[in-house]
Specification:
It is a single chain. It contains 12 helices and no strands. The protein is mostly helical. The radius of gyration is 23 Å and the shape is elongated. The two termini are about 30 Å apart. The N terminus is likely disordered.
């Protein structure tokens, strides 16, 4: 097969994938652009987000400052792009930690009835408390830091993953091939790893995207309320919190990070919807 023919086949497959999964691809492209803008913030802007210039206080958007400046003369674009690093970091780390911890606890609770009674009562207790109140309480008893915020939001999101994995395990455990493995004397650990764990991957992947979006929102809300990352570390939440009293005089100070937050959460949710359609056999079979 010639290289030109191979490239045509790859291009055709890529085009078919994009046409078949427009939501997933659209959300992925937007999220990649947001991540790239945060990672390469210095190269894109070249302005220190903490640099104070009283002579440029609350300047409107211009060629020098594309998104204007805040009450201390700091560049809004630079602060927004650098703030995206914290919000994206929190979202990705919380998603990974909650998914890994919830997978372990969910498998244990779904396969062992004694562990199920203990783990699920703890999860029910966590879910009985409003998520934002629980996160505020956890951050209030410790020093404000990014690590504290990640831990608090992970605890808040953990019950969702545990309940999802447990429900999948309870369903798969009753299947004939699992019962056959039990009758054949297969060790429980091997049954979990070989027969049950693969069935949790698809729903868990979709749930991880929704957790990432929720974590970004909760982190921004905590920072907005003053219970999140310290003020010296820019994030979308504390940028909007500092700017809210100047909204009528300089609306760009709060609108720009708000738009970035909304677009990022929308992109992650679109990816979640696209992954759900892609990984759910019932949906893929009807397309």
């Amino acid at each position: 097969m010639s290289s030109a023919t191979y490239r045509d086949i790859v291009a055709g497959n890529a085009g078919y994938f994009v046409r078949s999964n427009p939501t997933l691809c659209f959300g992925g492209v937007i999220l990649l652009l947001v991540i790239a803008s945060a990672v390469f913030a210095e190269a894109l802007v070249g302005v220190d987000p903490l640099e104070i210039n009283p002579l440029n206080r609350m300047k409107p958007p211009s060629a020098e400052h594309w998104f204007g400046t805040d009450m201390f003369g700091r560049d809004i674009l630079s602060r927004t792009l650098h703030g995206g690093r914290i919000s994206l970091l929190v979202g990705l780390v919380v998603s990974a930690c909650a998914t890994a911890s919830g997978l372990t606890l969910g498998l244990l609770a779904g396969y062992n009835r004694i562990a199920d009674a203990l783990v699920m009562r703890v999860m029910d207790g966590l879910m009985s408390i409003p998520a934002i109140l629980l996160a505020i309480a956890l951050t209030a008893v410790t020093n404000a830091s990014t690590g504290t915020v990640i831990f608090a939001i992970t605890v808040v999101e953990l019950p969702r993953v545990v309940r999802l994995v447990r429900s999948v395990v309870l369903s798969v455990r009753e299947q004939a091939y699992v019962e056959a493995a039990v009758i054949a004397g297969t060790r429980p650990l091997k049954i979990v790893v070989k027969h049950i764990l693969p069935n949790t991957i698809a729903p868990l992947t979709v749930q991880a995207t929704y957790i990432c979006a929720a974590a970004i929102l909760i982190e921004s809300l905590l920072s907005f309320l003053g219970a999140g990352t310290p003020p010296e570390i820019p994030s979308w939440g504390n940028i909007m919190a500092e700017s809210r009293i100047y909204f009528q005089l300089a609306p760009w100070m709060i609108l720009i990070p708000g738009v970035f937050l909304a677009v990022t959460v929308l992109a992650v949710n679109l990816m979640g919807d696209g992954l759900r359609d892609l990984l759910d056999p019932r949906l893929s079979g009807t397309r």
